[in-house]
């Protein structure tokens, strides 16, 4: 397969990745490791991290797995401290921990709404804030995984839409407030990514063909598409990009969410 990026473009970097055991952010963690970075992956349950840790290490990378719930600030502080103890610093933070399910607004409980907001928005802030001092030392960067659901309106996704709108606000605000410390803060908003558990769970098979017709590029995204965007934004090629949430969706959101 043809290589897009030069070898070891992240050599010497240390990345802390939440939700790094599976799915999109697991792919990002693996891609950063393949680019030369040392990786710490965090998730609520350690068993969700072990397969990715083994995969990264089997490919010659260095990976540290630590259990931490992003909703628990003390747990995240501890995970950050243990990462620094292990690798000496943190250069890159990737916020990918997320929660999602389909539910009509009139059937959604306050607890269900709050849980997703706590994981996605509050969790993103917790990790950014806990990592701030280390990122200040390294003049590092933050990459927040968002979505396009809130750009227009997505039925049965009000909780996730609210949470990801908060993530985008965090990206913009921190890019301004922390830019003076040399910290870049950007995001990626994936569209429909077919090789994820979420796509299998949230999108019924009959709707896949209809949704494909609503994507200008006429295909679903792949985790690899998000990995490439992440490698670009975390590399020196993007050294003057700050406060941007890069949409990676084949143009789908521009046509709206209708399946007609």
Q: Describe it for me?
A:
The chain is an alpha/beta fold and 260 residues long. The chain has one domain: Rossmann fold (3-Layer(aba) Sandwich). Helix content is 43%, strand content 14%. The protein contains 8 helices and 7 strands; from the N terminus they run βαβαβαβαβαβαααβ. A 7-stranded parallel β-sheet has the order 3-2-1-4-5-6-7, with helices on both faces. Strand 1, helix 1 and strand 2 form a beta-alpha-beta unit. Helix 4 (110-138) packs parallel to helix 5. The N and C termini lie far apart (37 Å).
List the helices and strands and how they pair.
Elements lengths: L13 E5 L4 H12 L3 E6 L6 H9 L4 E5 L5 H15 L4 E4 L14 H29 L2 E5 L12 H20 L6 E7 L6 H6 L2 H9 L9 H12 L10 E4 L12
How would a crystallographer describe the biggest sheet?
A: 7 strands, parallel
* Overall mean confidence score, pLDDT: 93
What would you call the structural class?
alpha/beta
The share of residues in extended strands comes to 5-15%
Strand order of the largest sheet: 3-2-1-4-5-6-7
CATH architecture call? 3-Layer(aba) Sandwich
Question: What is the rounded distance between the termini?
Answer: 37 Å
> At the third CATH level, what is the topology name?
Rossmann fold
Helix fraction, binned, reads 40-55%
Task: Give the SSE order as H and E letters.
Answer: EHEHEHEHEHEHHHE
């Amino acid at each position: 397969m043809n290589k897009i990026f030069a070898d070891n473009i992240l050599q010497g970097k240390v990345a802390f990745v939440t939700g790094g055991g599976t799915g999109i952010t697991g792919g990002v963690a693996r891609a950063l490791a393949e680019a030369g970075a040392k990786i710490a992956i965090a998730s609520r349950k350690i068993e969700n991290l072990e397969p990715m840790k083994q995969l990264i290490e089997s490919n010659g990378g260095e990976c540290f797995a630590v259990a931490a719930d992003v909703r628990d600030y003390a747990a995240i502080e501890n995970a950050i401290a243990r990462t620094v103890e292990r690798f000496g610093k943190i250069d890159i933070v990737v916020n990918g921990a997320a929660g999602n399910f389909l539910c009509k607004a009139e059937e959604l409980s306050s607890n269900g709404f709050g849980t997703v907001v706590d994981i996605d928005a509050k969790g993103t802030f917790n990790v950014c804030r806990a990592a701030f001092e280390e990122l200040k030392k390294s003049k590092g960067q933050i990459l927040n995984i968002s979505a396009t659901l809130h750009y227009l309106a997505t039925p049965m996704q009000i909780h996730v839409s609210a949470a990801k709108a908060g993530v985008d606000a965090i990206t913009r605000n921190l890019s301004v407030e922390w830019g003076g410390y040399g910290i870049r803060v950007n995001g990626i908003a994936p569209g429909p990514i077919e090789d994820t558990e979420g796509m299998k769970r949230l999108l019924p098979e009959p709707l896949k063909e209809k949704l494909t017709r609503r994507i200008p590029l006429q295909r679903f995204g792949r985790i690899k598409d998000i990995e490439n965007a992440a490698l670009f934004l975390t590399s020196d090629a993007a050294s003057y990009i700050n406060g941007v949430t890069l949409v990676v969706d084949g143009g789908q959101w521009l046509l709206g969410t209708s399946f007609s």
